[in-house]
């Protein structure tokens, strides 16, 4: 069956995430038959380099033999059991190994099944912990401008991207919001000073309202879904000190930044801090199965420990918590990190990414920035002016790159690269060659979308 046949069947039945389906009347969805390494292959045999690790999860590419083997071996013994009243080897060993890699002082793991759920767990644990300690008034949360923490209601409450949150405002409890330390528009030499300046807003808020604040939640070093807004580790150092001083929890959302993406295994290592809650997902299972985990301290754990009748227990659950298949493949992923010195190798790859970016036509991009294996820039016209969001230049660039065999997914008119860690030098060269051509093409094209359907009108509703 060819691409067209699969696409017609998709169009009739599927509703894709984070997608305005009407766009696909003009830009066809691409059915993928198989994937290997950094490449995706459609049913016609065309291949696409996955430069965003399929939404930041496939850190070791696709169809990795060691991960495949771990999955099939575990399936031969047990796929899943409930984690209430039972346990199993993979989840115990995974917990031990995660805590060995985590900042000292984190020593308890609570599992869920996706990133948003991990944020929900951390928010609830924080507030409930203060309640159990006799501080019911500490029930507010502080989040940064431009933050993104997920799309379930609790996570969405601390998200500051109107595209996701505005519609659901009547369902959300607004957090306390503080100016972002975003340094993306500044030269790297100015990042530390600007981050310190921006921390003054957080300092003032905590000093005035700490008695009612349960926790501050941040994405360490990179605000991902806001367009890869980056800042200096000194902000996290100051935040840790202030949270300790004012008795406020610190929640580190490393769902996007964890597992070697920023130059260290966890981003918060670059600030040498330990959060009270460390939220992980995405790359946890290297893109194989949904799983998330919240790492926290023994002190917080003990606030929930007691007789059932006290109602101190954390009554939160997910049916697939601690799934054995997911745990087994996560363990195999951690073994690859150790055996192949991935974090060290990523630093060399980061240098290659930085050099490759210098070959792009600079007149069509601005605010080039990089943190580890995340590289980003903003699209602009030849005079350096920003495009209006309604022009959707990012979408045009996305399509121009796809035609040449490169998968990127700009956030509005901000472009980022987050390739798998197994990418080779020749593939990095291909990535930047295609991106340069796509930038030139997009600059020549008028800023508009096609005004008529081009695929399968008979399948449209």
What report would you give on this structure?
The protein is an alpha/beta fold. The chain has two domains: 3-63 and 341-444, Aspartate Aminotransferase, domain 1 (Alpha-Beta Complex), CATH 3.90.1150; 67-339, Aspartate Aminotransferase, domain 2, CATH 3.40.640.10. 36% of the residues lie in helices and 16% in strands. It has 14 helices and 16 strands. The chain has helices spanning 3-13, 53-56, 65-77, 89-101, 115-132, 153-157, 162-165, 191-209, 234-246, 298-302, 324-339, 342-357, 393-403, 425-444; strands at residues 32-36, 39-42, 47-50, 106-112, 140-144, 176-178, 213-218, 222-223, 229-230, 249-253, 277-280, 292-297, 365-371, 374-379, 406-407, 414-417. The strands form four sheets. The chain has a seven-stranded mixed beta sheet, with helices on both faces. It has a four-stranded mixed beta sheet with strand order 1-2-3-15. The protein has a three-stranded antiparallel beta sheet with strand order 13-14-16, covered by helices on one side. A hairpin with a 2-residue loop joins strand 13 (365-371) and strand 14. Helix 13 (393-403) crosses helix 14 (425-444). The protein is globular and about 65 Å long.
List the helices and strands and how they pair.
Elements: H1 3-13, E1 32-36, E2 39-42, E3 47-50, H2 53-56, H3 65-77, H4 89-101, E4 106-112, H5 115-132, E5 140-144, H6 153-157, H7 162-165, E6 176-178, H8 191-209, E7 213-218, E8 222-223, E9 229-230, H9 234-246, E10 249-253, E11 277-280, E12 292-297, H10 298-302, H11 324-339, H12 342-357, E13 365-371, E14 374-379, H13 393-403, E15 406-407, E16 414-417, H14 425-444
Parallel strand pairs: 3-15, 5-6, 5-7, 7-10, 10-11
Antiparallel strand pairs: 1-2, 2-3, 4-12, 8-9, 11-12, 13-14, 14-16
